[in-house]
Write a structure and sequence with these properties.
With about 525 residues, the protein is mainly alpha-helical. It is built from 22 helices and no strands. It is globular and about 70 Å long.
Length: about 525
């Protein structure tokens, strides 16, 4: 009963604070609804970025991989910090200079409307078919497993899963669709604090368990008993071979933190460039510490449970139920619930934004005013949420290693979109036709590569790692765009217009802090090599 009360209490607290914080925001305007009125500060941006990213895919998936392979999977976390630095220094100033609400809006200005529409379509397809259902399924599986929803409600496990899916989907939809970005960002910030506290409790209590009641002894036992699990340099048989860090891994990170609408929308809502850059860099510092929450528990679970766990993705839920005192269970359930909601409602809010601005306004009702755009976006969001709730249970048959599977499938649209954005900013004469060719060929070639050549022609064991494939296709598509640009250049150079939406004076310490963050990341890898 105490666990249930603390769960409901913390969840209601987040909702009330988010409501109070958004009362004065004009949700009827597209800027107010989609970008929180361009009023987000560094702390809110950092908190929202972290919690949008951190959900059950990492807590369950990465800890599951760490259970099997050790600390080398920390690359997914620590290398993100470098991508966030690049975004803060290079991409964000250009985004805010153009007063962007969506990333595809830049593509329309740089190339043409068709390029923007194709990109928006790819984003929406990825969210609907892959990301939203996976977030709902993995989150619901974690909640129902860790806290025995089936036994609590006296229903079958399948019914418990459906109940969790629709609970997360409905509550997340309310935040995202009816509250707008600011409600999402504020609730994310509160949940981020709770997640950091709750997430740290798991390894702390886990190490105390390992050490027979002593935290320090637990560290000593873990570092001396399982040295093979503490090597950050993966071999060619691992899920992250060391060479991939320098190829597709950094491209995936740069796409996710620098161009993915669900993530970068938080920084686009910054009140000015300084706050946006400080928010990104603050989040990057916490990202370096991320392995403590999403990698270390998996190694602790390996020590405690060993071969008794057959499915590695069960390692984290089992560790939680084993080491967490009952008095903390309700709080952690609420925090985990908030993390799941965050990933879901952030992607949903971004989908609503993309549809309202890039599709409804452009193709369905060109004369629509801002109130109509927001209204249409909300209706689309409701439809999207319902579809994702019904698709989510079908993910039950997805391959093991849900996190790695998610990253591989996302390559269908992540690398093509990153390619045309990078070339768009770094060149002035590459034409729109080059972007269309690159984004279509990038998606098609990746699908052929991973879902035809890999399983049926060359075989799983003889085929290059999917991160290497991403890098190869990225370079190939860049070359294709440059060749087309040389043969059929634009009539005039592209010049980005300063819309004066926000102050774009950079934070004076952005480069110094960015360099420091990169040095810490490199030092971390050297220490664990």
């Amino acid at each position: 009963m105490l666990s249930l009360i603390s769960f409901i209490g913390f969840t209601v607290l987040v909702a009330v604070v988010a409501y109070i914080a958004t009362r004065k925001t004009n949700e009827q305007s597209s800027e107010g609804y989609f970008l929180g009125g361009r009023s987000l500060t560094a702390t809110v941006i950092a908190g929202s970025l972290l919690l949008t990213n951190l959900s059950t895919e990492q807590l369950v998936g990465l800890n599951g991989q760490a259970f099997t392979e050790g600390i080398l999977v920390m690359a997914w976390e620590t290398l993100a910090a470098i991508a966030m630095v690049i975004t803060a220094v290079f991409l964000l100033p250009r985004y805010l200079k153009g007063g962007l609400t969506t990333v595809p809006t830049f593509l329309e200005r740089r190339y043409d409307r068709t390029t923007k529409s194709i990109t928006s379509g790819l984003f929406l397809t990825g969210y609907v078919v892959v990301f939203l259902p996976i977030v709902l399924y993995s989150g619901s599986l974690a909640i129902s497993t860790m806290f025995d929803v089936s036994g609590l409600l006296g229903v079958s496990k399948e019914t418990a899963l459906w109940i969790c899916i629709f609970s997360i989907g409905i509550i997340g939809s309310i935040y995202a669709i009816f509250g707008g970005l600011k409600a999402v960002a504020v609730s994310d910030t509160i949940n981020a604090v709770g997640l950091i506290i709750g997430g740290l409790l798991i390894p702390v209590f886990g190490l105390i368990e390992v050490g027979g009641g002593s935290f320090l002894e637990g560290i000593n036992v873990l570092t001396t008993t399982h040295t093979e699990k503490l090597n950050a340099i993966g071999d060619n048989e691992s899920s992250i071979p060391f060479a991939t860090i320098f190829t597709g891994m950094m491209l995936v990170q740069l796409f996710y933190w620098g161009t993915n609408q669900a993530i970068i929308q938080r920084a686009l809502g910054a009140k000015n460039l300084k706050e946006g850059q400080k928010g990104l860099l603050l989040a990057s510092v916490f990202k370096i510490l991320g392995p403590i929450i999403v990698v270390l528990p998996g190694i602790i679970a390996f020590h405690l449970f060993g071969e008794s766990i057959v499915n590695a993705d069960e390692a984290y839920p089992k560790l939680v139920t084993q080491v967490l005192p009952l008095s903390f269970v309700g709080f952690f359930a609420a925090v985990l619930f908030g993390a799941i909601l965050s990933s879901f409602n952030s992607a949903l809010n971004s989908s609503v934004t993309l549809f309202g601005i890039d599709i409804y306004k452009e193709y369905i009702n060109k004369e629509a005013n801002e109130k109509q755009i927001v209204s249409a976006g909300k209706k689309f969001g409701v439809l999207l949420a319902v579809l994702s709730m019904f698709v989510a249970p079908l993910i039950a048959n997805a391959p093991d290693g849900l996190f790695g599977y998610l990253q591989e499938v996302n390559g269908c649209y992540s690398i093509p979109i990153l390619t045309i954005i990078v070339v768009g900013y770094l060149t002035k004469r590459v034409p729109a036709i080059a972007a269309k060719v690159a984004i279509i060929s990038g998606a098609v070639l990746y699908i052929i590569s991973q879902f035809y050549l890999k399983p049926y022609v060359f075989g799983e064991d003889n085929y290059p790692h999917f991160l290497h494939i991403m890098a190869i296709l990225f370079v190939l598509n860049v070359v294709i765009m440059l060749i087309i640009g040389k043969l059929y250049p634009r009539g005039e150079n592209y010049v980005q217009e300063f819309t004066k939406e926000v102050d774009i004076t950079p934070w004076k310490h952005v480069k110094l802090v960015g360099i420091l963050v990169c040095v810490i990341v490199i030092a971390t890898f050297l220490y664990f090599s």
